[in-house]
Design goal:
This protein is of the alpha/beta class and about 100 residues long. The protein contains five helices and three strands, in the order αβααβαβα. The relative contact order is 0.15.
Length: about 100
């Protein structure tokens, strides 16, 4: 696994997504919180093959993330094994799927 990009806001996220051609995006759900459906839709238009794992310290964000169409949801408080399980789940899952943490 290799980190190929990083973004601090939505505009740079969309630009980095097109520039770096990553397979998986770890999305800090707080970054998308104002309009998560629009953010995920914009990502899907640019990169329909991109798998998205939403990360949040708020468990109540799981529902909004699922509604927006992310592939996996992991709590920021989760153990590393749970994050690895979410990554492995991307190989086995059809989009969208939720990882219960």
């Amino acid at each position: 696994m290799e980190t190929v990009g990083e973004a601090l806001d939505i505009a740079s996220l969309l630009a980095e997504t097109e520039r770096c051609h990553a397979d998986v995006l770890f999305l800090d759900w707080g970054l998308a919180a104002e309009q998560p459906e629009r953010v995920v839709a914009a990502l899907r238009r640019r990169r329909p093959d991109l798998r998205i794992i939403a990360l949040s310290s708020r468990p109540e964000d799981r529902r909004a993330a699922a509604t927006a169409g992310i592939d996996q949801f992991v709590s920021k408080n989760a153990f590393s094994e749970e994050l690895l399980a979410a990554l492995r789940g991307l190989d086995r899952s059809q989009r969208p799927t939720q990882h219960e943490t």
